[in-house]
Amino acid sequence: MEISLVTLKDARNIFAAAEKRAAEIGQPMNIAVVDSGGNLVAHERMDGAWIGSVDISINKAFTARAFNIATKDLADNSQPGQQFFGIHGSNHGRIMIFAGGIPLKKNGHVVGAVGVSGGSGEQDQTVAQAGAAAFSVDA
């Protein structure tokens, strides 16, 4: 079975949808898209987005792909006493355990991820969801 790649064109579509949502909520964002190996396909920093959130957005995308789980859900399971407590210290500190990273699926397989950072967790999540929704499952 062939699993499609996340292309630069896909990343641009994700950026457009995510940017639109970020503009609607009035919060400039950093948006990252990674491929099936967790490698960066593209990153975009909207005008006015925090410089400190560049790496966070990339690492949210990496985390969502590395574990095939939304970072928001990973966060819920990584609190003290939970099964993934301490996971944020793994992978050389690249693991993000707060909202804004979402796996991208094609034909039921995770083929990449989007990561968003620059606002509150809720803002990051809603912008990431908009970006992920723009990813075409039939492309």
Description:
By secondary structure, this protein is an alpha+beta fold. The chain has a single domain, classed as Haem-degrading domain (Beta-Lactamase, 2-Layer Sandwich), CATH 3.30.450.150. About 35% of the residues lie in helices and about 20% in strands. The chain contains 4 helices and 4 strands; from the N terminus they run H-E-E-H-H-E-E-H. It has helices spanning about 10-25, 55-65, 70-75, 120-135, and strands at about 30-35, 40-45, 100-105, 110-115. It has a 4-stranded antiparallel beta sheet with strand order 2-1-4-3. A hairpin with a 5-residue loop joins strand 1 and strand 2 (about 40-45). Helix 1 (about 10-25) packs across helix 4 (about 120-135). It starts with 7 loop residues before the first helix and ends in a 6-residue tail after the last helix. The mean pLDDT is about 90.
By DSSP (H or I, 4+ residues per run), the number of helices equals 4
**Mean pLDDT over the residues:** 92
Q: What is the CATH architecture descriptor?
A: 2-Layer Sandwich
Distance between the termini: 15 Å
Helix content: 25-40%
Give a count of the beta strands, DSSP E runs of length 2 or more. 4
Principal-axes shape call: globular
CATH topology category name = Beta-Lactamase
Q: Major beta sheet, specifics? A: 4 strands, antiparallel
**How large is the radius of gyration?**
14 Å
Unreliable spans are: none
The H-and-E topology, N to C, reads as HEEHHEEH
Portion in beta strands: 15-25%
CATH superfamily: Haem-degrading domain
CATH class category label: Alpha Beta
Q: Give the strand order of the largest sheet, numbering strands 1, 2, ... along the chain.
A: 2-1-4-3
Question: How many domains, in number, for the residues?
Answer: 1
* Content-based structural category: alpha+beta
